[in-house]
């Protein structure tokens, strides 16, 4: 996809995710790949369903530095920036979505004192790359912090943990989830599938 098409698709996805209650109240975030290997990053503190293509920043996945600012000088890069870049650096993620869905918060509660939740006996597991409906799928759960940037050490540890090598998501207690893929379309699919898994796990309980 061209850079323009990518930004338009990211805007479309934010509108869809808003209708599902995953990025309401200015919460949540998204990023996607540029043609030259950087990332388009949504701004913080704005209504995500109203974001336009020119509102995206271009950041380096190496360190999160701003390569190209948004057209509107009043906008600021998403608080998710360092976490998105950590997923890009460690897992090769090229598109990441941050959800504030209630189902993700309730699913994280299932971990209790453990550092993960397990999903199994669900056909929708097939929607996660590499999985079958016979797999027991572990998703890491990390503890929330006052600032999103303070989650990075926990995120990095979870991404490097071999137990979670098959996971494309991280749950944050009392907060939400980070979900990613190799491109925008895979991130979209994984986002939809993981939210189904979250909702199913909560409903079954």
CATH superfamily, called what?
A: Class II aldolase/adducin N-terminal domain
Amount of beta strand: 15-25%
CATH topology: L-fuculose-1-phosphate Aldolase
CATH C-level class: Alpha Beta
Q: Report the mean per-residue pLDDT as an integer.
A: 97
Q: What's the architecture, going by CATH?
A: 3-Layer(aba) Sandwich
For the termini, the CA-CA separation is: 41 Å
Query: What is the gyration radius calculated from CA atoms?
Result: 16 Å
Count of helices?
A: 5
Structural class: alpha+beta
Low-confidence stretches: none
User: How would a textbook summarize the main sheet?
Assistant: 9 strands, mixed
The coarse silhouette is globular
Tell me how many strands there are: 9
Order of helices and strands: HEEEEHEHEEHEEH
**What number of structural domains do the residues give?**
1
Task: Give, in spatial order, the strands making up the sheet with the most strands.
Answer: 4-3-2-1-5-9-8-7-6
How helical, in percent, are the residues?
25-40%
What's the short story on this structure?
This protein has helices at residues 3-19, 81-91, 102-109, 152-160, 184-204, and strands at 29-33, 39-41, 57-59, 66-68, 95-99, 116-119, 137-142, 169-172, 176-181. It is of the alpha+beta class. Helix 2 (81-91) runs parallel beside helix 4.
Structure description:
- It is a single chain.
- This protein has 205 residues and is an alpha+beta fold.
- It has one domain (3-204): 3-Layer(aba) Sandwich (L-fuculose-1-phosphate Aldolase).
- Helix content is 32%, strand content 19%.
- It has a 9-stranded mixed β-sheet with strand order 4-3-2-1-5-9-8-7-6, with helices on both faces.
- Helix 2 (81-91) runs parallel beside helix 4 (152-160) and helix 3 crosses helix 5.
- The chain is globular.
């Amino acid at each position: 996809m061209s850079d323009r098409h990518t930004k338009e698709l990211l805007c479309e996805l934010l509108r869809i995710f808003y209708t599902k209650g995953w990025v309401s109240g200015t919460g949540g975030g998204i990023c996607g790949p540029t043609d030259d290997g950087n990332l388009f990053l949504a701004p913080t503190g704005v209504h995500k369903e109203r974001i336009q293509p020119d509102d995206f920043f271009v950041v380096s996945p190496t360190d999160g530095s701003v390569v190209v600012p948004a057209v509107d000088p009043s906008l600021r890069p998403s608080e998710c920036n360092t976490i998105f870049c950590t997923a890009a650096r460690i897992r090769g993620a090229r598109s990441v979505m941050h959800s504030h869905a209630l189902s993700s918060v309730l699913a994280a509660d299932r971990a209790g004192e453990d550092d993960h939740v397990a999903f199994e006996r669900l056909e929708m597991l097939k929607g996660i790359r590499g999985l079958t409906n016979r797999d027991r799928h572990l998703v890491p759960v990390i503890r929330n912090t006052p600032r999103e940037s303070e989650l990075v050490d926990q995120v990095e540890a979870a991404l490097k943990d071999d137990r979670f090598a098959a996971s494309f998501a991280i749950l944050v207690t009392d907060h939400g989830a980070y979900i990613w893929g190799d491109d925008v379309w895979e991130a979209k699919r994984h986002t939809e599938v993981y939210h189904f898994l979250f909702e199913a796990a909560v409903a079954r309980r």
